[in-house]
Write a structure and sequence with these properties.
The chain has 323 residues and is an alpha/beta fold. 48% of the residues lie in helices and 16% in strands. Strand 3, helix 5 and strand 4 form a beta-alpha-beta unit.
Length: 323
């Protein structure tokens, strides 16, 4: 007699190089920046730029940035996402099999789906760990899953975790995490700055809801905390006009004005290069070079109790009728 079917949950985050060195970063960037949803420039124009300029200059610089945040467990993003999957597995027990994957790099989505299927999972919840929907993040996960399913004769039944930018569980977890972080500071910040990953302004004009969902998160978080939460967009790249206001510009302005700041990154489910190096290290330096004195970076939800309780709540909701 065959074993009874199992239910799978696959947590998916963006991705990371295998090591903080130029060859590993080059491989990662080649995959990431070749995604047509990430860079919406015709490939006949983009690929010569990518192969001829970006992949010959950027990997060394990015590898230096990764080296500043790399841990004994490897990439912070991969290590935290793995621990999130382990904690969620503990919460579910034997009723669900939990795995994790990266959209770019390893472990790959296709391999993770195959492993869950081999373990007997005929129903799988795909959980992109992006609170705010963006075609360059959430949709690429759906694309990758669909592309892999084309090669499977026996496909599992799938569900996808929807964006949760205004979900009460998400906002409640953020509120608890932020208040805990603020209580540990030796100063009271004048400004709470929520920094989201940037996107070209063109994506908003084409109908991507990302900008509006980021703003909605900040508004609801402001209501929950009882104080204003500003919005900034980080990680600008290239010459195109990007969503504004820019996080780095705002940090420099706050430094010049002599105002204290606590910065958070509610669009990231786990700390990574963009939070640990770009905000906590480089952002702090930009702020202090402009004359600022009191700066704090508040970590992402990561594997702290509020964040894990939120993930379990969201997953159980989407598994209704399966469990």
């Amino acid at each position: 007699m065959s074993a009874p079917p199992q239910i799978g949950v696959l947590l998916v985050n963006l991705g990371t190089p295998d090591a903080p060195d130029a060859p590993s970063v080059r491989r990662y960037l080649a995959e990431f920046l070749s995604d047509r949803r990430v860079v919406e420039i015709p490939q006949i124009l983009w690929q010569p730029i990518l192969r001829g300029i970006i992949l010959t200059t950027r990997p060394k610089k990015s590898a230096h940035a990764y080296a500043q945040v790399w841990t004994d467990a490897g990439s912070p993003l991969a290590a935290i996402t793995r621990r999130q999957s382990e904690a969620l597995q503990t919460a579910f027990g034997e009723t669900v099999r939990v795995a994790y994957a990266m959209r770019y790099g390893e472990p790959a989505i296709g391999g993770a789906i195959d492993a869950l299927k081999a373990a007997g999972c005929d129903r799988i919840l795909i959980a992109p760990l992006y609170p705010q929907y963006c075609a360059a993040t959430t949709a690429t996960v759906v694309d990758a899953v669909g592309n892999h399913l084309q090669a499977l004769r026996w496909q599992p039944t799938l569900r996808f975790l929807p964006p949760y930018h205004d979900d009460v569980a998400y906002l409640g977890a953020l509120k608890t995490s932020i208040e805990t972080g603020l209580a540990a500071l030796d100063f009271t910040p004048d400004v709470l700055l929520a920094s989201f990953h940037g996107m070209p302004e063109r994506t908003r004009a084409l109908g991507d809801p990302y900008h509006d969902q980021c703003q909605a998160t900040a508004r609801r978080l402001s209501d929950a905390l009882g104080r204003p939460v500003e919005v900034g967009f980080q990680s600008r790249f290239g010459r195109a006009k990007w969503l504004e206001p820019a996080t780095d510009v705002r940090l420099e302005q706050l430094g010049r004005d002599g105002r204290s700041v606590a910065i958070l990154a509610p669009g990231f489910a786990a700390d990574c290069l963009e939070t640990l190096e770009e905000l906590a290290i480089r952002g702090k330096r930009q702020f202090e070079d402009a004359g600022g004195r009191h700066f704090a970076y508040l970590p992402c939800l990561n594997t702290d109790a509020p964040g894990m309780a939120m993930l379990e709540t969201l997953a159980r909701r989407e598994l209704a009728g399966w469990l």
